[in-house]
Amino acid sequence: MKKILILSLAVILILCALCSCTAKDNGADAQPSDTSADATSPSSPSENGGKLLLSGENRYRIVYPENNKELKTLASKIYDKLLKLDPIAPTKPAYYNLGSDKVADDGTPEILVGLTTRAASEAAAASLTKYHDFAIHISDKKIAIYANTPERLEAAINHFIKNMSASDDGNVYYATLESYVDVYRGDYPSATIASTPLKDYKIVISATANETQKKAAEELAFILTRVCGTSVPIITDAEPASEHEILFCPLNRAESETSTGMNDKLSFNNGKVIIAPTENGYSRLANMLAYVIDNNRGIVAKKDLQFTSLSYDAIRSVAFGAVNISEQENGLRFNKFSDKQIEKWTSYNRYNEAASSTGIRLDFYTNSSSFYFKASKNTKFELFINGESKEISSTGIFDVKLEGENNRITVLFPNHQVNTTLFEVKLDEGATITPYEYQRKFLIVGDSITQGYSAATDSLSWANRITRMFDADSVIQAISGGTFQVSTLDPEVDFIPDYIFVAYGTNDWGARSSMDDFRSYAQAYYDKLAELYPDAKIIGITPIWRKDTDPRRVGEFDDMCAALKEIIESVGGYAVNGVDLVPHDRQYYGEDICLHPNNEGFEFYANNLYEAVKDIIK
Question: Most buried of 182, 270, 303, 309 (most Cβ within 10 A)?
């Protein structure tokens, strides 16, 4: 009997050993934990000889700007090299990922090619000291490869690929952990204006020029040297006129022009480039001239120098929905959040969502017979004429003829596009422009549902619909993935609302550790709102219905909504029952987990919300 027991135990031990080996061979449930001795740490130079790990647990995806085929081709070179070097890749389809920056940044390590929507790309661009340098900028989980010209970007890609290698441990590495800037030492492109070498030109400013004019002229001289390697001298109009000049008007030159006060104008006349801006447009037109020279590879024809558009000040006067408007090299960028708020949301890994143009719009009356609009991003802008939607542009360009003596023009920016830059707006020379006057002001805060996640255009989101229903000047500070975060409220924002709509909660229900935790964050947020805007009426919207309502750590969905209603009313706010706003039917939601309404769902949301608050809003 004892022998039988011993033999049985031996068999069991052997079987256990075999099962253990099988589990290791299959690898299905045998992945090392983060603390395993087998796990490779890319941040530890001592383990990889000061090289950056690109494969294995740290494998990078390659990202290029959306709708840019040229950069997709360059990014593919890195992708192909990874597949060639990594021995595991051929056995696992799509082991590495190549895609555009349309995909949100979820923390996955990325190699960024060109100016993507990721902050690391802008950091790489900022690291360049000369125009024709290139940068390979390495930061936390990001390798940003950037150059100002296609030729130099290709050189940067080639440099990166040359320094990629496979190691004996079966992984792929980049040769260093350090960022790198390559200083350009080649020949600059030739540059001509109307067939005349740029070096034959002089920049002319008034003998009584103010600091703004002087600075713009110096900027232009610097940019031309940077782009073309050509040094253009700056003189005053007290010196004799020469045949080829770049004129910063007004001057005592025959070709000098004076701005109309609304338009900035760049033109070519009698061998001279004429810069005739509004008071604050000198820098803009200097940058535009440099952009024209750069974009045409230095060979500029007369037709390239015909630019008349609304000044930045004129555009600012008819822009709504932005709390921060900043001048970029070639245009204006509009932000629904202040710099301080964007910085806070970035710390919560929400930069792209915070930097999107939700709720931004131009809105004005004009007697012009034409309207031209050009922005930097290829996405969905929407043009309204006299309150009626007329055109949706996927190129960021509108070019329309207008009928009648006076028209209301409204352009809605896309609700999810990051860092949209407006290049120019053109009207007839001498046309009038009058900002639209709204009846009240709304501040609307919330998550992806408020940002219109599944709406075809921004105009179809509930926030934009309710804005139009009440004829409100609204700032829609919606943030996909957002939760109650009191630190994201900025008392310095120059926008005082009459009414505040708050639609956070559904993400908090899944993110908070307990009901007490949920209450603490929500209460602090509402308390701060009441403190910052004591004269505004707060309208809190509890979360709308969602299909996945299994209890979370906070508790039951209905209990969370009830708790939120108490908090809203504790600060004197009006609580709207969100569950009643959208029908509990999948057909009114997008193609996801039945969380985000579609166009029809948002229509129900806005109409029912209007009925709920129409007697409150005066």
Answer: 309
How far separated are the first and last CA of the chain, in Å rounded?
A: 93
Give the helix/strand (H/E) hosting 9. Answer: helix 2-26
List helix spans (H) across 348-415.
351-354
Q: Rounded CA gap, 268 and 304, in Å?
A: 9
Report which residue type is found at 63.
Answer: V
**pLDDT given at position 378:** 63
The answer to whether the bond into 197 is cis (omega within 30° of 0) is no
**Which 8-state DSSP code applies to residue 169?**
T
pLDDT digits (tens, 9 = 90+) for 224-250: 888 888 889 999 999 999 999 999 999
Residue 390, token pair as written in the block: 């007329």
Task: Return the SS3 of 31.
Answer: coil
pLDDT in tens, 441-456: 999 999 999 999 889 8
Give the bridge partners for 393, in sequence order.
381
* Residues, the chain: 618
Check: CB of residue 482 under 8 Å from CB of residue 350.
Answer: yes
d(CA 247, CA 606): 53
**Residue whose token pair is 């034959």:** 200
In one letter, which amino acid is 40?
T
- When pLDDT is averaged across residues 146-164 and rounded to a whole number, the result is 94
Could you tell me the two tokens for 48? 């990889």
Residues 6+ apart with CB under 8 A from 242: 202
Sign of CA dihedral 459, 407, 399, 374: negative
- Give the helix/strand (H/E) hosting 426: strand 421-426
Type of residue at 617: I
The pTM of the whole model exceeds 0.85: no
Please give the order of strands across the beta sheet that includes 61-64: 98-100, 61-64, 110-113, 142-147, 134-139, 180-182
Cα distance between residue 210 and residue 8, in whole Å: 99
CA distance 48 to 167: 9
- CA 534 to each of CA 117, 152, 159, 411: distance values in angstroms, whole numbers, following the listed order: 37, 55, 58, 32
Q: How many C-beta atoms surround the C-beta of residue 123 within 10 A?
A: 16
pLDDT, tens only, 323-359 = 999 988 778 999 999 999 999 999 999 999 999 999 9
pLDDT tens digits, one per residue of 276-292: 998 889 988 888 888 88
- Site of tokens 């509108």: 398
For residue 591, name the pLDDT band (cuts at 50, 70, 90): confident
Which strand ranges, in their side-by-side order, compose the sheet holding 397-401? 324-327, 332-335, 421-426, 370-375, 397-401
Q: Is 8 exposed, middle or buried (0-12, 13-18, 19+ CB in 10 A)?
A: exposed
Rounded Cα gap, residues 508 and 194, in angstroms: 61
Round to whole Å and give the CA distance between 457 and 389: 11
**Residue 45 pLDDT greater than 60, yes or no:** no
